Amino acid sequence: MRVQFYKYQGTGNDFIILDNRKNEYNELTNKQIRFLCDRHMGIGADGLMMLNEKEGYDFEMKYYNADGNEGSMCGNGGRCLVKFAYHLGIHKNAYLFSATDGDHEAEIDLDGAVSLKMKDVKEIKPFQNDFILNTGSPHYVKMVENLDKVHVVNEGRAIRNSEPFKKEGINVNFVQHKSDDEIGVYTYERGVEDETLSCGTGVTAAALTCFHNENGFNDVVVYTKGGKLNVEYDRDNDGSFKNIWLTGPAEKVFEGSIEL
After folding, report:
1. What architecture does CATH give domain 125-248?
2. What would the pLDDT profile of 191-234 be if each residue is shown by its tens digit?
3. Which of 110, 130, 158, 188 is most buried when burial is the number of CB atoms within 10 A of its CB?
């Protein structure tokens, strides 16, 4: 099988994207996806996405982790897939697509940045001295004094493989306050089982945890190793969050074909 692929990245979070509107890649196996994502033997990526047709939507997002298994929602991946849809000729003022965690809206800003509406979040749960929440994927948020002194892989892997997270896995975010509305985030991702340069759902989780307005509108600037993202949201009196938008760059890197 010859696979036509497209490589995209959003703040260094990189993805292989396949146009699967004709269902030609439905039979890809976990092993083949793992090979494609391998940075030494294949193309190399944090994950693989398929753009599928789905009635009532502009497209459907199908996401696979680098380990070849189907994954949960990926924020940067969703933003990259919207830009890919635009490059395919799907031009909309506002996009509506289906993903594993439900429906998502998205827009492409005048500067080319992609804004993606994330799922509402009901609560942030304290866990020991840290926090747990689900922003489409499960996330562990740990506040630190200095990100540069954190060994992300070792510490992240230890938390991800600890009880009660060992079976299902969890993404681990180390977060440093820079100002009232600015934070830095380093993330260890399950499924990749390594540090990534950026994680959209992780950035969102960190920004919600670091709200600077107790109630109402919040706008948080997030610095990752791969670049800058913005998270805007409304925080309600009951501690829930809605109207959550993740905004940042999403760019095509290259395209090609590979024989499987």
Report:
1. Roll (3.10)
2. 999 999 999 999 999 999 999 999 999 999 999 999 999 999 99
3. 188
Q: How big is the chain, counted in residues?
A: 260
Domain 2-118+250-259: which topology? Diaminopimelate Epimerase; Chain A, domain 1 (3.10.310)
Mean per-residue pLDDT over the chain, rounded: 98
Active site residue 199: yes
Q: Which of 156, 147, 130 is nearest to 182 (CA)?
A: 147
Is the Cα dihedral 132, 134, 140, 144 positive or negative?
A: negative
- pLDDT band for 61, please (50, 70, 90 cuts): very high
List, in sequence order, every residue forming a beta bridge with 254; answer none if it has no partner. Answer: 7
Q: Respond yes or no: is residue 210 known to be catalytic.
A: no
Q: Which residues contact 104 (CB under 8 A, 6 or more apart)?
A: 61, 78, 96, 97, 98, 116, 117, 118, 119
Q: Which one is catalytic: 37, 80, 199, 210? A: 199
Q: Are the C-beta atoms of residues 212 and 180 closer than 8 Å to each other?
A: yes
Element of type H or E holding 201? helix 200-209
Q: Pick the catalytic residue: 37, 74, 80, 210?
A: 74
